[in-house]
Amino acid sequence: MIEHTGGGLGTAATEGTHGMKANNYFLKAGYVSLTAVETVEAEPGDYWTPWRIEMASIYQWHVYEAARDVARGMPERPHVLDVGCGYPIKLHRLLAPASASASVTVVDQPTLAGRIAADFPELRFVPVDLERPDADLGARFGLVICSDVLEHLLDPDPCVAFIKRHLAPGGVAVFSTPERDILRGRDCLRSPKPEHVREWNREEFVRYIESHGFRTLRSLLMPQARFTPEQLAACREAPPDSRDCFACHTLIAEPTAP
């Protein structure tokens, strides 16, 4: 993993914040967001096919490892919330044991309710429209995870506000998203993946999250898929311009104000 610690990447966020925000969520000039959402599920199984369920145990694995490490470093086992949980196999394997004495809540589209109830009965599932997350979950959480979700939303602002609203005092949020410059090149002005409304580079994403009243604790680049220690070591030794294996940006942040 490649890491920056503290708020160094986002220190410029307070300059020109309103203008940058108006210009498409802190994305660079000329970037065009898509206008349709491809990940809304009309009926159970439309999106979460057997293939996607299998991939759920592979992609963003290291994000959940990082979240587990955050949980382990807290004075008490935190209540955990996973926003846009999808098929929550990584949460089940990595975070539920780390929060064995605390509650674990997951939110996502209503169509996931039956599958989660059948496969993960220990998790509390709450159906939430992440484009309009007006629900109050009736609890506050020491750790909130939002892994590769925001790039799927037409307007991610309400989702980020929902996350901040549900953090307990002293709580920490773990966000992740694909790193556009690494995946697509610096000249990319539109996501080639129809499921992604927009994609940020690392600096843009830090500024975007910090504009919502968060302070960066750690900014990490890690593999999108699950790597062995040997594969990670090989990536670290690769030339900087060929490190496309480190294409998942994970941001660990805390709120700066209520």
Short description:
This protein has one domain (2-255): 3-Layer(aba) Sandwich (Rossmann fold).
Description:
Keywords: Methyltransferase, Transferase. This is Class I SAM-dependent methyltransferase. Its EC number is 2.1.1.-. It is an enzyme of class 2 (transferase). This protein is α/β, with parallel strands linked by helices and 258 residues long. The chain has a single domain (2-255), classed as 3-Layer(aba) Sandwich (Rossmann fold), CATH 3.40.50. 29% of the residues lie in helices and 21% in strands. The chain has helices at 17-22, 50-56, 61-72, 89-98, 113-119, 157-165, 180-184, 202-210, 229-237, and strands spanning 2-5, 80-83, 104-108, 124-127, 141-147, 167-178, 214-222, 248-255. An 8-stranded mixed β-sheet has the order 1-7-8-6-5-2-3-4, sandwiched between helices. α3 (61-72) packs parallel to α4 (89-98). The protein is globular and about 45 Å long.
